[in-house]
Amino acid sequence: MEINQQISKSLSDAFDRCIALIKPLSQVELQQKPDAHSWSVGQIVDHILICSSDIPDRSIEATSRAYDERVPVIEQIFLDLDAKYEADQSLLPQQEYYDKEELLQRLLDCKTNLIVCHKDKDLMPLCKGMEFPQLGYLTRFEWLSFIAVHIQRHCYQIERVLEQIETEPSQEV
Length: 173
Known about the structure:
By secondary structure, this protein is mainly alpha-helical. Helix content is 53%, strand content 2%.
């Protein structure tokens, strides 16, 4: 499978899984937090959207390394569900209350924009707009792979939140 099709499928699958988790939720469930230090499902989705809006590829540079060299490290970091990370301030959820239909539409729009924007681009050059913490500059393919893996991680988080709020009495929001 050609790499543009491969990454499009990965992104599509990740976004579709997130959408499938959100669709059956009520507005109340979307806002509920398992505890004071956790995010609600709405906040998790907002974080996903903030991190998935674009990749820093306004300035690019050819590289001699493999276009997907850092993908295994990205997967190792983000699919280790026991590891906890602090999000940068700029990536934190922006609200306390979220509208389900608006979040679903934003997820669909984000998915479409990423796939359409990158379907014909060369995914092999390094994106020089921003370095990834501890990994340096990533290729377009690696940035898009990060987005897919990051969404997967947060889908697991959404599932855990939903399990926790199911076992607790419903709270009014």
